[in-house]
Amino acid sequence: MNDIRTILSTGQPGQAITAKGWVRTKRDTKNAVFLELNDGSCMSSIQCVFDAATMNPELVAVLGHSGTGAAVAVSGTLVESPAAGQKIELKAEALTLIGACPQEGYPLQKKAHSLEFLREIAHLRPRTNTFGAVSRMRDEMAFATHSFFRDRHFRYVHTPIITASDAEGAGEMFQVTTLDLEAMAKSGKAPDYSKDFFGKKAMLSVSGQLNVETHCMALGRVYTFGPTFRAENSNTTRHLAEFWMIEPEMAFAELEDDMELAESYIKHLLSWALDSCAEDLAFFDKRIQPGLIAMLDGVRSKAFVHMSYTDAVKELEKTKDTFEFKPYWGCDLQTEHERFLTETLVKAPVIVTDYPKDLKAFYMRQNDDGKTVRAMDVLVPRIGEIIGGSEREYRYDKLVENMQAKGLDPASYWWYLDLRRFGSAPHAGFGLGFERLLRYVTGMENIRDVIPFPRAVKQAEF
Ligand code: ATP
Ligand code: MN
User: Fold this and answer.
1) Exposure winner among 211, 263, 366, 389, fewest CB in 10 A?
2) Three-state SS across 367-408?
């Protein structure tokens, strides 16, 4: 391989090579021209040095067109570099212009741009140091996810994106239809979903959990990793309309097993970032979130604190004046509450368990107190909730009761209920928001900056 990552890590002085990439900067001095060449294979660029004394007019002309952003190939010999921070550089002899980049109108010149501005040029932002590093980290975390679950004998299951059971109940859904909305509006008639593509109302999935449970009751240990959709009208730095979620589900498992899995998984991801993504992480630590590396390193060596919802609310009530929303038993924990628990009180990740049943979904296992369910949320500093999970209600009668109490029609969940009728077993799982995890490990503040093409309210340009 001759990508720049390989050249920089294994190249030897004296070796003849050709490097292809995009010019980051070009600098002219009296004796030489310096090109910083980057191909995205790693954060670092290779420095290419053209000796002014040996340049012919043709090379001078090509160099003239090789400004920032141009795609070029440079051939020459690797030499030890006198410059600080790099072992080798390329003593360049030949240059081919592959794709010129007119400087006029090219938005990525040398000056640094704000993240807000870069969001408006999402098609070009992967070429910056920040978004290059984010993209590589996203890939690394996806890979580390698969390797973690594979090592623990979990199978990757692809759950559907379109769902016709308006079942999941985890927030507002997007509708999927081929009905002619404009014609319907003109005629003033109500939609007839029996004429719609699926013969009934269909939506984009908010979670793969209900579907993945079918495979949990067959393969034992499974997970999904795919896009999910929520039409949340919330313009926050934590919510997207389209985001990726990892949802493991384990058979013959209870809440304790679920918490152990969640903690091990997060620690595995942090360790992977620290051990295998050092160069990009150093960039985030220096430019985005000072202290990031020490923080991540601290988290991986300490046990997560466990706390019941009831105890958490008692703690919150002690300092209730500091909150905009006053905490009380039965309230949904707000981000300010979550962040207080993990950042101020415990100063580490916290797992809050046993929430009031009214706050949580119908499929969570009820505790014997009749008031709470075997739920767990993992809260981490800076982010708040990163994981939501639970032990599932595996008893048929209880599950039907929960549905009815929440005003759901058991008939429309017939296949889900079948899992409780035929060979039901205790099982547990959770959902980790992939972009929230990426905010955590990169230190990036806005969730729109850790997904290549963010979809949020009024935002779907690219
Ligand atoms: P929150 O209360 O923080 O909005 P939630 O309780 O609605 O989240 P769950 O239904 O528990 O979320 O989803 C599981 C995980 O998916 C969450 O812990 C979070 O990491 C992530 N998540 C949920 N909604 C979004 C969203 N709109 N954008 C990005 N990630 C999300
Ligand atoms: Mn949740």
Assistant:
1) 263
2) CCCCCEEEEEEEEECCCEEEEEEEEECCCHHHHHHHHHHCCC
CA 452/CA 131 separation, integer angstroms = 9
Q: What is the DSSP letter of 78?
A: E
Residue nearest to atom 29 of ligand 1 (CA): 239
Write down the H helix ranges in 120-208: 129-151, 181-187
Q: How many domains does the chain have?
A: 2
**Residue 169, pLDDT score:** 58
- The ranges of the chain with pLDDT < 50 are none
Is there a contact between 171 and 232 (Cβ–Cβ < 8 Å)? yes
Residue 435 near ligand 1, beta carbon < 6 Å? yes
Phi, psi for 221 (deg, rounded to 5):
-125, 120
Q: Are residues 318 and 445 in the same domain?
A: yes
**Amino acid present at 118:** L
- Which residue's C-alpha comes closest to atom 23 of ligand 1? 433
Whether residue 294 is found in the same domain as residue 257: yes
pLDDT value, residue 456? 94
Question: Both 16 and 152 in a single domain?
Answer: no
- At residue 101, the pLDDT reads 96
For the stretch 209-230, pLDDT in tens is 999 999 999 999 999 999 999 9
Task: List the domain range (segments joined by +) for residue 441.
Answer: 125-170+206-449
CATH number of the domain enclosing 88: 2.40.50.140
Distance between the two ends of the chain, CA-based, in angstroms? 32
In a domain? residue 68: yes
Amino acid at 431: G
Q: Which ligand 1 atom minimizes the distance to the CA of 447?
A: 29
Q: Are residues 134 and 92 in the same domain?
A: no
* Å from CA of 385 to ligand 2 middle: 7
